Amino acid sequence: MSHRVTLIPGDGIGPELADAAVAVLDATGVGFEWERVEAGEAQLAATGTPLPDEVLESIRRNRVALKGPITTPVGEGFRSVNVTLRQALSLYANLRPARSMAGLETRYQDVDLVIVRENTEDLYAGIEHMVGPDAAESIKIITRAASERIARFAFDYAVANGRRKVTAVHKANIMKLSDGLFLESCRTVAENYAGQVEFEDRIVDNMCMQLVQKPDLYDVLVLPNLYGDIVSDLAAGLVGGLGVAPGANIGLDAAVFEPVHGSAPKYAGTDTANPTALILSGALMLRHLGETDAAERVESALRSIVAEGATITADMGGSAGTAAFGRAVAERVAGAPVAVA
After folding, report:
1. Of these residues, 19, 26, 122, 229, which one is catalytic?
2. Tens digit of pLDDT per residue, the chain (341 long)?
C-alpha cells in the first residue's frame, strides 16, 4: 500500500531537515508518494501570502502532511502559519510526546510524558485588538464542545496506548469561568473512563514546578492551547530540548506532523541542524497511518544511533551534519547504504 503525503519543507533549516526525514521514512520500505508544496516567508514574497491555497488543498486531498518548521515573525508581520493551518483544517488536537533518550545528558533518565493540547481556541484564537493607542486586548475563548473533545482525545489516547493517568492542567482558581469550564468539561469526560484511566487535575503554575521536581508522577497531560504550548516546551527541556521534540496536529479529516522547534534561519544551509524532532514526527505519522512496525523501527534506529554517539549533531554533543545523521538513521532502518538529498 502506498501513502500519498503532503510534504511542506518549511523555511530556514526546514528543507534540510525534511530531506533527512524523508530519507529515513523511505528507508522503512513503506510506499510514499510525496506531494511537495511550499509555505513560509519565501512564498510571502512570491505570492503575497505565506500559506498559499494550494497547501491547504493538498492537505485536504491527501489527509496527511509532514511539515518542517516555518518562521513566525515576533510582534509584527504575518500571522503564524502553524496557527492558521490548525484552525483552517480543524486540527483540534496537538500531540507532543516527551520521552528520555539514552545518550543525551539530561537531569532525568526516565521521563515519559505525553502533552495533549487543545489547538483551536483559547488566547491563540487570535481575537485581539487595540484599545486606544496604548493598550491592547486579547480575548480568551473556551467552549464546552472543544474542551470535552480534547479531553476525549486524551483519554482515548491513554486507553489505546496503555497509559495510566490523565491530568487536566488549568488556572481555574483565578479564571473561574473560562478555565473553570475547561476543568468541568474534563471532569465530565473522565467519568466515562472510570476504572480504565486515573484522572486528576493540577493548577498550571504548580504543574510546572511538579514537572521539574518529579516528572515521574505524570503521564498524559491535557491542557488548553496557551498552557499546552508552554508546558510542552518545558517537557521537551526535561528530555534534551526542542531538537528532539516531535509533534502532531490531528483532526477528524486531516493530520499534520511537525517538530516543536522553530526554523532557526541563521543556521539555514549550514548542515548543522538536528533532524531528530522531524524524524520522530515522521514516526508519529507512520503510527497514524497504521504502519506501527515501521514506526517502531524508525524510533529504535534513531534511539540506537543517539545512544552510540558516533554520528550525532553538535547540539547532542557530536560533530555530524544534518545529512550525515539522517543517513545514519536511514541506513540503520534499511540495513543498507542510503543516500540523503
Report:
1. 229
2. 799 999 999 999 999 999 999 999 999 999 999 999 999 888 888 888 889 999 999 999 999 999 999 986 655 556 678 888 988 999 999 999 999 999 998 999 899 999 999 999 999 888 999 999 999 999 999 999 999 999 999 999 999 999 999 999 999 999 999 999 999 999 999 999 999 999 999 999 999 999 999 999 999 999 999 999 999 999 999 999 999 999 999 999 999 999 999 999 999 999 999 999 999 999 999 999 999 999 999 999 999 999 999 999 999 999 999 999 999 999 999 987 777 76
Q: Contact 199/165 with Cβ under 8 angstroms?
A: yes
| Domain end among 239, 265, 299 | 239
Residue written as cell 526542542? 242
**Distance from CA of residue 2 to its chain's centroid?**
24
The one catalytic residue among 124, 157, 193, 218: 124
CB 22 within 8 A of CB 7: yes
Check 157, 171, 193, 227 and give the catalytic one: 171
Q: Is 98 part of a structural domain of the chain? A: no
Q: Is 112 a catalytic residue?
A: no
- The 8-class DSSP code of residue 1 comes to -
Could you give the number of structural domains in the chain?
Answer: 2
**Same domain flag for 126 and 220:** yes
Give me the CATH number covering residue 5.
3.40.718.10
* Residue 171 among the catalytic residues: yes
Residue 205 annotated to the active site: yes
Q: 128 and 16 share a domain?
A: no
Residue 6 maps to a domain: yes
Instruction: Please say if 293 is a catalytic residue.
Output: no
pTM above 0.90, yes or no: yes
